[in-house]
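Sample log: HTH cro/C1-type domain-containing protein.
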Amino acid sequence: MFALKDYITSEDIKNLRKNLGLTQKEFASLVGTSKPTIERWEKENAKITGPIVLLSKMINDYPDYVNRLIIPEKEFPVRMFYMYKDDICTLIDVDDAKQLVRIKNYTDKLMFRAFGVNENPDYNDYKEFLESRCFPRTRDKMKLVLEDIGLPFYDTFMIIEKTQGRMAEDDFWIRIEK
């Protein structure tokens, strides 16, 4: 037995979505359903049951948590997601020409963040991070390794594009969007 209502109403759904400032499509993405389902829930005058009841209570009680999950609009030419398995740990936006870096962490676990405790990394921190996700420049027979992955020279960004920054026995990796 839990201290939860058995159902929510279409008005509850509409109010929750509007209080969050989300479109039906955005709200559907947040709660893991389709836009047509949200449309139906908001139109029908029925009792809505299932996991959405608990989820809506949690969202109502902790609306700031939703803001922590929002992925901001892309402002810089390169966007990277530092991942642990399938979980986003840190979003990294980079403008190489202006040497600007912006991040947003999606975990409280410092060891899972791309830059640890550093919330405002500079461009040098970013370059060091890239280097840390590649095999060492001093690796024995590096030219053969580069040849194997189809690269003419050592470039950390290009290596990460090819390898996703994956390391042996490591579940962290990097997804790049341009």
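Observation: The mean pLDDT is 95.
Observation: The first helix runs from residue 10 to 20.
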